[in-house]
Amino acid sequence: MATKNPFVNTPDFAEVWELGYMAGFAEPETDHFIPFSEELLNAYQRGVQVGRDDRRLLPSGEAPSDEGHGQWGEFAKEAVEFGVIHALGEGLEHLGLKAGGLIALVFEVVLIPGDVSFRALEPDWEGPVDQENDTYVGVCGRTEHAMHPAETVTSDGYWVGPQRKTFKEAAADRNNHQHAESIIVRCSASDGTCGPVWPVK
After folding, report:
1. Which runs of E-coded beta strand occur in 42-175?
2. pLDDT at 65
3. Does any domain span residue 1?
4. pLDDT tens digits, residue range 117-142?
């Protein structure tokens, strides 16, 4: 069963829970803390724990390194050599509420030729990496990013990396970004889907 955000009906808490989920999933062996109010911090920590739990459910061959965030890119590089990615799950379906949704957020950067209508990836989606009509982009749901000429920061403060044709390139962008909450989003013009993905060995 896909992970559900318990704060779906409370947008501020839902967004903070998702940040925690992303951080816990990306770095399950690291303690994560952002100085929110006590109530929001509780939602964030609950998200961290669920993200850790979901990550630890992956097969042992996909276990993360315990050497910190800088190792994520190496893990992604090795995993992609096996050629499969899967959807990160329904727990992130409300990412970017202030920006009008994850897909709308990504398409501030991603340019797809033609008239393609996109829908969210199913939580159990899995498929080959780097297909002909795939586009990958790093996204961070935190909203305190400063404007930088080499990066895209939305008016709401979200970071969106450059449009890439390979998962490996987007993984490098995500690793360089240095926020554990950041993710990689795959958009496919072939099947009209868009959503957060994770490498599978």
Report:
1. 84-87, 119-120, 126-128, 134-140, 152-153, 159-160
2. 45
3. no
4. 888 888 788 899 999 999 999 988 78
CB proximity list for 14: less than 8 A, separation 6 or greater: 5, 7, 8, 94, 97
Helices (H), 140-184: 167-177
Does residue 128 lie within any of the structural domains?
A: yes
Separation of alpha carbons 70 and 172, rounded Å: 10
Q: Judge contact between 37 and 10, C-beta under 8 A.
A: no
Q: How many helices (H) and strands (E) does the chain have?
A: 5, 8
Provide Rg for the chain, Cα atoms: 16
The total domain count for the chain is: 1
Is 5 among the domain residues? no
Instruction: State the pLDDT at residue 67.
Output: 43
Domain interval for residue 50: 11-200
In a domain, 184, yes or no: yes
How many residues are recorded in the chain?
201
Measured CA to CA, the distance from residue 104 to residue 96 in angstroms comes to 8
Residue type, 90: E
Candidates 25, 20, 22, 27; CA nearest to 47 is: 20
DSSP for 55-74, written as a single string: HHTS-GGGPPPSS-GGGHHH
Residue whose C-alpha is closest to residue 195's, from 106, 120, 141, 97: 120
- SS3 state of residue 17: helix
User: d(Cα 85, Cα 171) in Å, to the nearest integer?
Assistant: 12
* Residue, of 192 and 102, whose pLDDT is higher: 192
Say which residue, 104 or 161, is predicted with more confidence: 161
